[in-house]
UniProtKB/TrEMBL annotation:
Residues that bind substrate: 141, 218-219, 226, 250, 306-308
A molecular function (GO) term: metal ion binding
InterPro entries cross-referenced by the UniProt entry: Amidohydro-rel, GlcNAc_6-P_deAcase, Metal-dep_hydrolase_composite, Metal_Hydrolase
PANTHER family named among the record's database cross-references: N-ACETYLGLUCOSAMINE-6-PHOSPHATE DEACETYLASE (PTHR11113:SF14)
UniProt lineage: Bacteria, Pseudomonadati, Pseudomonadota, Gammaproteobacteria, Arenicellales
Protein name (database record): N-acetylglucosamine-6-phosphate deacetylase
Residue span(s) of domain Amidohydrolase-related: 53-376
Coiled coil segments of this chain: none
Source organism (scientific name): Arenicella chitinivorans
Amino acid sequence: MTEFALQADRIFNGDQFLENHAVVVEQNRISAVTARSELPSDMVVENLGSGVLAPGFIDWQVNGGGGVLFNNDTTVNGIRRILRGHYQGGTTGLLPTLISDTQSARGLAVMATRAAIAEGEQSVLGLHLEGPYFAAAKRGTHHEAFMASPSDAEIAWLIDNADLPLLVTLAPEVVGCQQIQRLSDAGVIVCAGHTNADAATVNKALRAGLRGFTHLYNAMRPATGREPGVVGAALVDRQAWCGIIADGHHVHADMIRLAWHAKPTGKLCLVSDAMATVGGVHRSFELYGQTITERDGRLLNSEGNLAGSAITMIDAVRIAHQLAGIELGEVLRMASLYPAEFLRQPKLGLVKPGYRADLVHFNSEFQVQQTWVAGQAKLPSNKRVLS
């Protein structure tokens, strides 16, 4: 179908909830959001019934899904399996995320991401390289053998690949301000993470072009009364974005709400930090030769450290709304519009004419019923009612 309409009891367009409305999709774009009564009589209409139709979710930290860990399968096929795992959770755009590994693995990740985009995988919005330029004391599940400072050649290589787009998470005490500025000036999105820096060091990095913070609170120096640390610097800064893992394990619900109160509107984004088990059938996988196992909703390595999460974005939306008490419309923006702005994606994150038709429909139990990318349904469904 080149043109059709989706109607649901409630539509969230990014600004407000609409009732008795429909979204008209033409080709891969939204052409109109209109009252049901104004739809042409001959238009094909898909009646979604109850629930909410909203902008598709955008996740900038996806280590794996569909049974695949990106580090273990840095191929186009691996990316496609990850995408399929996350469509089930309402994600329509993501950054495949490679955690600390060899330069060879980083090269393969770049090639696979480029190839996926070239082959038409519109859900792939770029690449996230999480490490290896981290503080050993805050490495978490990242392997200590890969912790290092970047060489000039490695910085130049990152700059050469800034067109992807490319997000790099690093520790500002390991990577100097001059290097951060070079990356930022080239268009690389630079985030702080796995860092033990003091607030003064973080603030210098912010002035040099640091754009955000990866998984706020986790693997970073906490705030105290005498030293704001990374967390304090992140919460106080008015320009930087923060990703936060709302899985019920990485961050307490009250601390999610605290971050939401502290940050300016639009600067707090939900991320999944998802691993291979998400959207897959197995409850364990291999990382660095260790078995990572899901227990009671948590992923743990042999040292007992959290090793990513076992959630999709719809889980993060539910937890941020129900447990952290953030209004649903704002939570949906934290999962769509704000990440789109952070990633410089101007035609994603809203249900408005001219925007790409990336959509998610979920019910009152926060179960995803269907996901669309560029107007194409991604989940098999026997619930459609065409009229």
